[in-house]
Amino acid sequence: MARTADLHQTAEQRLRRLNQRLTSGRVVLLEVLAASDRPVTIPEILESRTGLAQSSVYRNLVVLEEAGVVDRVVTRDEFARYELAEDLTGHHHHLVCSQCGVVQDLPAHPALETALRTAVGDARRRKGFRAEEHRLDLIGVCSDCA
Ligand SMILES: [Zn+2]
Ligand SMILES: [Zn+2]
Q1: Which ligand is nearest to the CA of 120?
Q2: What are the 10-residue block averages of pLDDT along the chain, 146 residues in total?
Q3: Going by CATH, does the domain composed of 91-146 fall within 3.30.1490.190?
Q4: Would you give the DSSP letter of residue 83?
Q5: Chain centre to alpha carbon of residue 76
Q6: In angstroms, what is the span from residue 113 Cα to ligand 1's centroid?
Q7: Where are the domains of the chain?
Q8: Closest listed ligand to the CA of 102
Q9: How far is residue 13's CA from residue 21's CA, in Å, rounded to a whole number?
């Protein structure tokens, strides 16, 4: 996890490219996301801090996503989830529970990353596709729902 001071500085720089500022409302969002070990929904963000307004949380998340500070994680349920951009936190995959919908982070496993590099090479040879990154979701049943 990035140190708070670094996170604020990086967020400020990325927002500045869009002529946006790191407002106090955006700082709160960065803190909530940095404190979470998994992507969170807007209702979860609103529950985690008192005094947040849903409309401004939503607007701020849109701006932070545009600035490349926050990633939106979309699964099959109705709620978008948000996390800090991967380059700020470290490469990981997601575990998506098809029953309760919760999404957990799973740190990248070296053996899997090696296998995926082989698959990326194969995609390039067979399709001429140059992969720059990958996302991997494992869909299944979480330990609470099992
Ligand atoms: Zn579950
Ligand atoms: Zn990976």
Answers
A1: 2
A2: 80 97 96 95 94 94 98 88 94 95 94 96 96 93 96
A3: yes
A4: E
A5: 16
A6: 26
A7: 1-90, 91-146
A8: 1
A9: 9
